[in-house]
Amino acid sequence: TLSCGIFSDDVKQALPAAAAVEVFHNFTLLHDDIMDNAAVRRGKPSVYAKWGPSVAILSGDAMMICAYRLLSEVPAELLPRILGTFNTMALEVCEGQQYDMDFESKRKVSVVEYMHMIELKTSVLLAGSVVIGAMLGGASDEDCRRLRRFAVELGLAFQLQDDYLDVYGDVAEFGKNIGGDIVANKKTYMLIKALELADPETKEELWGWIERKEFDHEEKIKAVTRIYDRLGIKEIVFAAIDKYLKMSRDILDKIDVPKERKIDFYETLDAIGNRKK
To answer: Helix or strand or coil: residue 74?
Structure first.
């Protein structure tokens, strides 16, 4: 609805599509929690943890069907373009999730590979929703392309913040258990940079924790976090987040509408910028 509101005063027309994207997103979270064996989602027990994998799978399937039912309510003349954008987004999200799982067993993952993965897993969802809203608002093809790039950069910043918050966040605010990525040996931006920058002794210590089959979760989280602290990983990820937020802001500046119509997006940028602090 925010992207629709940049170009049109009638944001109600965007509500069915907005609901479709939101329902689709929550469907992916239900299935992600199964694949990640995640016990907590948004500060509460995940569907998987509370009712088991079968209920989580079926609930996710039903949510995907509901998403398409909602999407069918958009104006008929725009449905082919919007459906194409939605389907591309949905497939890329699945592709990104597969990359994420593949990285768990891949010993060496580069920063470039990781950023491509999170663009697919996180950014394209935001980009698809922004572009669909802009289409419904009557945006030009050029402005749709700009908004897509804006959303991709914003999504990259958001996912890097998730990487940071998984290590340094507060569970009450983050809504998930802290240190889950460390316990699961997730190839996050922080782990990849740590392996890249570590001296041989530190790298050996880090790989020792990654390859250990039996360990105390809290001990591993504290040990790996201490390595991140020594290597200055927090400051490195902060700089990357700021870079992507600036790129998003620069693109938003170029959208050819009065600045007051973009104020909600500027406020969203500011809110996400403060999320890491």
So the answer is: coil
